[in-house]
Protein backbone atom coordinates (compact mmCIF):
# COMPACT_ATOMS: atom_id res chain seq x y z
CA UNK A 1 0.00 0.00 0.00
CA UNK A 2 1.16 3.51 -0.66
CA UNK A 3 0.18 7.14 -0.38
CA UNK A 4 0.32 8.77 -3.81
CA UNK A 5 1.60 12.32 -4.40
CA UNK A 6 0.95 14.22 -7.64
CA UNK A 7 3.60 16.95 -7.71
CA UNK A 8 3.16 19.68 -10.39
CA UNK A 9 1.91 16.94 -12.69
CA UNK A 10 0.73 17.80 -16.21
CA UNK A 11 0.59 16.04 -19.55
CA UNK A 12 0.20 16.98 -23.20
CA UNK A 13 0.02 14.69 -26.20
CA UNK A 14 1.39 17.59 -28.27
CA UNK A 15 5.17 17.47 -28.76
CA UNK A 16 5.64 21.17 -28.02
CA UNK A 17 2.58 22.47 -26.12
CA UNK A 18 2.12 26.24 -26.40
CA UNK A 19 -0.56 26.82 -23.80
CA UNK A 20 -3.11 25.25 -21.42
CA UNK A 21 -5.37 24.29 -24.34
CA UNK A 22 -2.68 21.83 -25.51
CA UNK A 23 -2.72 19.89 -22.22
CA UNK A 24 -4.94 16.83 -21.75
CA UNK A 25 -4.05 16.97 -18.07
CA UNK A 26 -3.73 20.38 -16.44
CA UNK A 27 -1.31 20.90 -13.55
CA UNK A 28 -2.19 18.77 -10.51
CA UNK A 29 -0.90 18.95 -6.95
CA UNK A 30 -2.61 16.43 -4.70
CA UNK A 31 -1.88 14.02 -1.86
CA UNK A 32 -3.87 10.80 -1.92
CA UNK A 33 -3.94 8.92 1.36
CA UNK A 34 -2.38 5.51 1.87
CA UNK A 35 -5.11 2.87 2.01
CA UNK A 36 -7.97 5.09 0.79
CA UNK A 37 -10.38 4.21 -2.02
CA UNK A 38 -10.70 6.91 -4.68
CA UNK A 39 -12.87 7.16 -7.77
CA UNK A 40 -11.84 9.30 -10.74
CA UNK A 41 -15.13 10.56 -12.14
CA UNK A 42 -15.85 12.63 -15.20
CA UNK A 43 -17.08 12.67 -18.78
CA UNK A 44 -15.20 11.00 -21.63
CA UNK A 45 -12.06 12.88 -22.58
CA UNK A 46 -11.64 14.69 -19.24
CA UNK A 47 -8.23 13.13 -18.48
CA UNK A 48 -9.19 10.25 -16.14
CA UNK A 49 -7.44 7.47 -18.04
CA UNK A 50 -4.45 9.72 -18.82
CA UNK A 51 -3.93 10.29 -15.10
CA UNK A 52 -4.39 6.60 -14.28
CA UNK A 53 -1.87 5.57 -16.94
CA UNK A 54 0.67 8.05 -15.56
CA UNK A 55 0.21 6.62 -12.06
CA UNK A 56 0.65 3.08 -13.40
CA UNK A 57 3.72 3.92 -15.50
CA UNK A 58 2.14 3.25 -18.89
CA UNK A 59 2.58 6.94 -19.73
CA UNK A 60 5.37 9.38 -18.90
CA UNK A 61 4.07 12.83 -17.86
CA UNK A 62 5.16 15.92 -19.78
CA UNK A 63 6.18 17.48 -16.49
CA UNK A 64 5.97 16.93 -12.76
CA UNK A 65 6.42 13.87 -10.57
CA UNK A 66 4.56 10.86 -9.15
CA UNK A 67 5.63 9.71 -5.69
CA UNK A 68 4.66 6.55 -3.82
CA UNK A 69 5.19 7.09 -0.07
CA UNK A 70 7.63 9.90 -0.90
CA UNK A 71 9.63 7.81 -3.39
CA UNK A 72 9.85 9.28 -6.89
CA UNK A 73 8.53 6.65 -9.32
CA UNK A 74 7.98 8.99 -12.28
CA UNK A 75 10.44 7.19 -14.53
CA UNK A 76 10.09 3.69 -13.14
CA UNK A 77 8.47 1.07 -15.40
CA UNK A 78 5.14 -0.41 -14.39
CA UNK A 79 6.71 -3.66 -13.13
CA UNK A 80 8.80 -1.75 -10.56
CA UNK A 81 5.85 0.22 -9.15
CA UNK A 82 4.23 -2.89 -7.63
CA UNK A 83 0.71 -2.03 -8.77
CA UNK A 84 -2.13 -4.08 -10.26
CA UNK A 85 -4.24 -2.62 -13.05
CA UNK A 86 -7.55 -3.82 -14.49
CA UNK A 87 -8.54 -2.37 -17.86
CA UNK A 88 -11.90 -1.58 -19.44
CA UNK A 89 -11.75 -4.59 -21.74
CA UNK A 90 -10.73 -8.02 -20.43
CA UNK A 91 -7.11 -9.10 -20.70
CA UNK A 92 -6.86 -12.86 -20.13
CA UNK A 93 -4.77 -15.78 -21.33
CA UNK A 94 -7.19 -17.77 -23.49
CA UNK A 95 -5.13 -20.96 -23.46
CA UNK A 96 -5.03 -21.05 -19.64
CA UNK A 97 -7.73 -22.24 -17.30
CA UNK A 98 -9.53 -19.78 -15.08
CA UNK A 99 -7.50 -21.16 -12.16
CA UNK A 100 -4.17 -20.57 -13.91
CA UNK A 101 -5.20 -17.09 -15.01
CA UNK A 102 -5.97 -16.14 -11.42
CA UNK A 103 -2.79 -17.81 -10.14
CA UNK A 104 -0.47 -16.20 -12.70
CA UNK A 105 0.42 -12.99 -10.76
CA UNK A 106 1.23 -15.01 -7.62
CA UNK A 107 3.30 -17.66 -9.40
CA UNK A 108 5.12 -14.93 -11.29
CA UNK A 109 6.33 -13.62 -7.90
CA UNK A 110 7.35 -17.04 -6.56
CA UNK A 111 4.61 -17.68 -4.00
CA UNK A 112 4.30 -21.28 -2.81
CA UNK A 113 1.50 -23.37 -4.27
CA UNK A 114 -0.41 -23.69 -1.00
CA UNK A 115 -0.73 -19.89 -0.77
CA UNK A 116 -1.58 -19.69 -4.48
CA UNK A 117 -4.34 -22.31 -4.17
CA UNK A 118 -5.87 -20.64 -1.10
CA UNK A 119 -5.89 -17.15 -2.68
CA UNK A 120 -7.28 -18.44 -5.98
CA UNK A 121 -10.16 -20.14 -4.17
CA UNK A 122 -10.88 -17.01 -2.12
CA UNK A 123 -10.86 -14.68 -5.13
CA UNK A 124 -12.88 -17.14 -7.24
CA UNK A 125 -15.61 -17.00 -4.57
CA UNK A 126 -15.51 -13.19 -4.67
CA UNK A 127 -16.10 -13.10 -8.43
CA UNK A 128 -18.52 -16.05 -8.51
CA UNK A 129 -16.31 -18.36 -10.61
CA UNK A 130 -15.42 -21.13 -8.17
CA UNK A 131 -17.30 -23.65 -10.33
CA UNK A 132 -15.41 -22.63 -13.49
CA UNK A 133 -11.80 -22.85 -12.28
CA UNK A 134 -11.03 -25.84 -14.50
CA UNK A 135 -12.39 -24.27 -17.70
CA UNK A 136 -10.20 -22.69 -20.36
CA UNK A 137 -10.73 -18.94 -20.72
CA UNK A 138 -11.23 -19.31 -24.46
CA UNK A 139 -14.94 -19.34 -25.26
CA UNK A 140 -16.06 -17.62 -22.09
CA UNK A 141 -18.33 -14.58 -22.35
CA UNK A 142 -16.91 -11.05 -22.21
CA UNK A 143 -18.25 -10.46 -18.71
CA UNK A 144 -16.78 -13.77 -17.49
CA UNK A 145 -13.40 -12.79 -18.91
CA UNK A 146 -13.62 -9.39 -17.22
CA UNK A 147 -14.32 -11.11 -13.92
CA UNK A 148 -11.08 -13.05 -14.44
CA UNK A 149 -9.27 -9.73 -15.05
CA UNK A 150 -10.75 -8.33 -11.86
CA UNK A 151 -9.76 -11.45 -9.97
CA UNK A 152 -6.18 -11.23 -11.25
CA UNK A 153 -6.03 -7.65 -10.04
CA UNK A 154 -7.33 -8.60 -6.60
CA UNK A 155 -5.38 -11.79 -6.02
CA UNK A 156 -2.16 -10.13 -4.77
CA UNK A 157 -2.20 -8.73 -1.24
CA UNK A 158 1.15 -6.89 -1.35
CA UNK A 159 0.53 -4.26 -4.05
CA UNK A 160 1.10 -0.51 -3.57
CA UNK A 161 -2.17 0.28 -5.34
CA UNK A 162 -5.01 -1.34 -7.28
CA UNK A 163 -6.00 0.65 -10.38
CA UNK A 164 -9.30 0.04 -12.18
CA UNK A 165 -10.00 1.67 -15.57
CA UNK A 166 -13.80 1.43 -16.10
CA UNK A 167 -13.63 -2.31 -15.30
CA UNK A 168 -17.39 -2.99 -15.21
CA UNK A 169 -18.30 -1.71 -18.69
CA UNK A 170 -18.92 -5.20 -20.09
CA UNK A 171 -20.47 -6.63 -16.89
CA UNK A 172 -24.23 -7.14 -16.66
CA UNK A 173 -26.04 -4.75 -14.24
CA UNK A 174 -26.72 -7.30 -11.50
CA UNK A 175 -23.12 -8.51 -11.47
CA UNK A 176 -21.89 -4.89 -11.42
CA UNK A 177 -23.58 -4.38 -8.06
CA UNK A 178 -22.12 -7.62 -6.66
CA UNK A 179 -18.59 -6.84 -7.86
CA UNK A 180 -18.70 -3.28 -6.50
CA UNK A 181 -19.71 -4.77 -3.15
CA UNK A 182 -16.83 -7.25 -3.33
CA UNK A 183 -14.35 -4.49 -4.19
CA UNK A 184 -15.50 -2.48 -1.17
CA UNK A 185 -15.15 -5.58 1.03
CA UNK A 186 -11.66 -6.21 -0.37
CA UNK A 187 -10.70 -2.65 0.49
CA UNK A 188 -12.17 -2.99 3.98
CA UNK A 189 -10.39 -6.30 4.61
CA UNK A 190 -6.96 -5.51 3.21
CA UNK A 191 -6.75 -1.70 3.07
CA UNK A 192 -5.25 -1.42 -0.40
CA UNK A 193 -4.97 2.03 -1.97
CA UNK A 194 -7.56 1.82 -4.75
CA UNK A 195 -8.19 4.16 -7.69
CA UNK A 196 -11.27 3.46 -9.79
CA UNK A 197 -11.89 5.31 -13.07
CA UNK A 198 -15.50 5.66 -14.20
CA UNK A 199 -17.92 8.01 -15.94
CA UNK A 200 -20.80 6.49 -13.94
CA UNK A 201 -21.65 8.54 -10.84
CA UNK A 202 -23.41 5.58 -9.18
CA UNK A 203 -20.28 3.45 -9.46
CA UNK A 204 -18.12 6.27 -8.11
CA UNK A 205 -20.37 7.24 -5.21
CA UNK A 206 -20.98 3.66 -4.05
CA UNK A 207 -17.35 2.55 -4.35
CA UNK A 208 -15.16 5.37 -3.09
CA UNK A 209 -14.28 7.02 0.21
CA UNK A 210 -13.34 10.11 -1.82
CA UNK A 211 -14.46 10.98 -5.34
CA UNK A 212 -12.06 12.93 -7.57
CA UNK A 213 -14.19 14.83 -10.11
CA UNK A 214 -12.35 15.80 -13.30
CA UNK A 215 -13.41 18.28 -15.96
CA UNK A 216 -11.48 19.41 -19.03
CA UNK A 217 -8.21 17.97 -17.81
CA UNK A 218 -8.25 19.27 -14.25
CA UNK A 219 -9.45 18.10 -10.86
CA UNK A 220 -12.33 20.38 -9.87
CA UNK A 221 -13.18 18.75 -6.54
CA UNK A 222 -12.11 15.91 -4.26
CA UNK A 223 -14.67 15.02 -1.63
CA UNK A 224 -17.01 12.54 -0.05
CA UNK A 225 -20.28 11.79 -1.85
CA UNK A 226 -22.08 14.01 0.68
CA UNK A 227 -19.69 16.93 0.06
CA UNK A 228 -20.08 16.63 -3.70
CA UNK A 229 -23.85 16.61 -3.37
CA UNK A 230 -24.29 19.38 -0.81
CA UNK A 231 -21.46 21.80 -1.68
CA UNK A 232 -20.28 21.29 -5.27
CA UNK A 233 -17.06 23.28 -5.67
CA UNK A 234 -17.68 23.80 -9.40
CA UNK A 235 -20.84 24.02 -11.48
CA UNK A 236 -19.74 20.92 -13.41
CA UNK A 237 -19.83 18.91 -10.17
CA UNK A 238 -23.35 20.17 -9.48
CA UNK A 239 -24.44 19.24 -12.99
CA UNK A 240 -22.65 15.87 -13.17
CA UNK A 241 -23.52 14.58 -9.68
CA UNK A 242 -27.20 13.95 -9.03
CA UNK A 243 -30.11 12.95 -11.20
CA UNK A 244 -31.36 15.45 -12.19
CA UNK A 245 -28.33 17.69 -11.71
CA UNK A 246 -28.22 21.01 -9.90
CA UNK A 247 -30.32 23.96 -11.14
CA UNK A 248 -28.22 27.02 -12.09
CA UNK A 249 -29.71 30.50 -12.36
CA UNK A 250 -27.93 33.77 -13.22
CA UNK A 251 -28.12 36.08 -10.23
CA UNK A 252 -26.82 39.13 -8.46
CA UNK A 253 -25.70 38.74 -4.85
CA UNK A 254 -26.21 41.33 -2.14
CA UNK A 255 -25.40 40.20 1.37
CA UNK A 256 -27.78 37.41 2.36
CA UNK A 257 -29.98 37.53 -0.71
CA UNK A 258 -29.77 36.86 -4.42
CA UNK A 259 -31.71 38.67 -7.10
CA UNK A 260 -32.96 36.49 -9.96
CA UNK A 261 -34.82 38.21 -12.78
CA UNK A 262 -35.36 41.24 -10.55
CA UNK A 263 -36.90 39.15 -7.74
CA UNK A 264 -35.29 38.45 -4.34
CA UNK A 265 -34.23 34.97 -3.23
CA UNK A 266 -33.18 34.59 0.43
CA UNK A 267 -29.84 32.87 1.02
CA UNK A 268 -28.79 30.81 4.02
CA UNK A 269 -25.59 32.86 4.43
CA UNK A 270 -24.26 36.34 3.76
CA UNK A 271 -21.69 37.00 1.06
CA UNK A 272 -19.21 39.74 0.34
CA UNK A 273 -19.02 41.35 -3.14
CA UNK A 274 -19.23 38.69 -5.86
CA UNK A 275 -17.84 39.57 -9.29
CA UNK A 276 -17.70 37.76 -12.61
CA UNK A 277 -20.35 35.48 -14.11
CA UNK A 278 -22.52 34.96 -11.04
CA UNK A 279 -25.15 32.26 -10.50
CA UNK A 280 -26.90 30.45 -7.70
CA UNK A 281 -27.07 26.66 -7.65
CA UNK A 282 -29.85 24.68 -5.99
CA UNK A 283 -30.52 20.99 -6.27
CA UNK A 284 -33.98 19.70 -7.32
CA UNK A 285 -34.24 17.97 -3.94
CA UNK A 286 -34.30 21.40 -2.26
CA UNK A 287 -36.64 23.05 -4.79
CA UNK A 288 -40.37 22.92 -4.03
CA UNK A 289 -43.35 23.71 -6.24
CA UNK A 290 -45.80 26.00 -4.44
CA UNK A 291 -48.92 28.12 -4.95
CA UNK A 292 -47.42 31.14 -3.19
CA UNK A 293 -44.11 32.92 -2.63
CA UNK A 294 -40.94 32.11 -4.51
CA UNK A 295 -40.30 32.65 -8.21
CA UNK A 296 -42.76 32.16 -11.08
CA UNK A 297 -42.47 28.96 -13.12
CA UNK A 298 -44.30 27.28 -15.97
CA UNK A 299 -44.55 23.51 -15.50
CA UNK A 300 -43.65 21.73 -18.73
CA UNK A 301 -44.03 18.09 -17.69
CA UNK A 302 -44.09 15.76 -14.70
CA UNK A 303 -42.12 12.50 -14.72
CA UNK A 304 -43.22 9.80 -12.30
CA UNK A 305 -40.14 7.66 -11.63
CA UNK A 306 -41.72 5.47 -8.93
CA UNK A 307 -39.99 6.71 -5.77
CA UNK A 308 -40.75 10.36 -6.52
CA UNK A 309 -41.86 12.79 -9.21
CA UNK A 310 -39.54 15.00 -11.24
CA UNK A 311 -41.14 18.30 -12.22
CA UNK A 312 -39.61 19.97 -15.29
CA UNK A 313 -40.35 23.67 -15.53
CA UNK A 314 -39.35 26.97 -17.10
CA UNK A 315 -38.17 29.77 -14.82
CA UNK A 316 -37.79 33.07 -16.67
CA UNK A 317 -36.41 31.25 -19.72
CA UNK A 318 -34.23 28.81 -17.75
CA UNK A 319 -34.93 25.08 -17.45
CA UNK A 320 -35.17 23.88 -13.86
CA UNK A 321 -36.13 20.63 -12.15
CA UNK A 322 -37.89 19.99 -8.86
CA UNK A 323 -38.49 16.77 -6.96
CA UNK A 324 -41.82 16.02 -5.27
CA UNK A 325 -42.93 13.06 -3.17
CA UNK A 326 -44.64 10.25 -5.01
CA UNK A 327 -47.97 10.95 -3.24
CA UNK A 328 -47.78 14.74 -3.59
CA UNK A 329 -50.65 16.30 -5.57
CA UNK A 330 -49.54 18.84 -8.20
CA UNK A 331 -52.34 21.36 -8.68
CA UNK A 332 -52.83 23.79 -11.59
CA UNK A 333 -52.45 26.75 -9.21
CA UNK A 334 -48.92 25.68 -8.24
CA UNK A 335 -46.97 28.14 -10.37
CA UNK A 336 -44.16 29.19 -8.01
CA UNK A 337 -40.91 27.56 -6.92
CA UNK A 338 -39.46 27.98 -3.44
CA UNK A 339 -35.81 27.18 -2.69
CA UNK A 340 -34.46 26.04 0.69
CA UNK A 341 -32.04 28.89 1.57
CA UNK A 342 -29.74 26.60 3.55
CA UNK A 343 -28.95 24.59 0.41
CA UNK A 344 -28.32 27.38 -2.09
CA UNK A 345 -24.72 27.71 -3.31
CA UNK A 346 -23.27 30.80 -4.98
CA UNK A 347 -20.92 30.57 -7.98
CA UNK A 348 -18.69 33.06 -9.76
CA UNK A 349 -17.19 32.00 -13.11
CA UNK A 350 -18.30 28.42 -12.31
CA UNK A 351 -16.44 28.18 -8.96
CA UNK A 352 -18.23 28.11 -5.61
CA UNK A 353 -17.96 31.25 -3.51
CA UNK A 354 -17.53 30.71 0.23
CA UNK A 355 -20.02 32.65 2.38
CA UNK A 356 -18.86 35.13 5.00
CA UNK A 357 -18.29 33.76 8.47
CA UNK A 358 -19.73 35.55 11.46
CA UNK A 359 -16.55 37.60 11.79
CA UNK A 360 -17.07 38.96 8.27
CA UNK A 361 -14.32 36.89 6.61
CA UNK A 362 -14.90 34.15 4.04
CA UNK A 363 -15.85 30.84 5.60
TrEMBL record:
The lineage of its organism: Bacteria, Pseudomonadati, Pseudomonadota, Alphaproteobacteria, Rhodobacterales. It comes from the Bacteria. GO terms for molecular function: ABC-type ferric iron transporter activity; ATP binding; ATP hydrolysis activity. SMART domains: AAA. Belongs to the ABC transporter superfamily. The keyword Hydrolase does not apply. Transmembrane segments: none annotated. Residues 4-241 form the ABC transporter domain. Gene3D superfamilies: 2.40.50.100, Nucleic acid-binding proteins, P-loop containing nucleotide triphosphate hydrolases. The keyword Hydrolase does not apply. Pfam families: ABC_tran (PF00005), OB_MalK (PF17912). Signal peptide: none annotated. This is ABC transporter ATP-binding protein. GO terms for cellular component: ATP-binding cassette (ABC) transporter complex, substrate-binding subunit-containing. InterPro entries: AAA+_ATPase, ABC_transporter-like_ATP-bd, ABC_transpr_FbpC, ABC_transpr_MalK/UgpC-like, Mo/tungstate-bd_C_term_dom, NA-bd_OB-fold, OB_MalK-like, P-loop_NTPase. Keywords: ATP-binding, Cell membrane, Membrane, Nucleotide-binding, Transport.
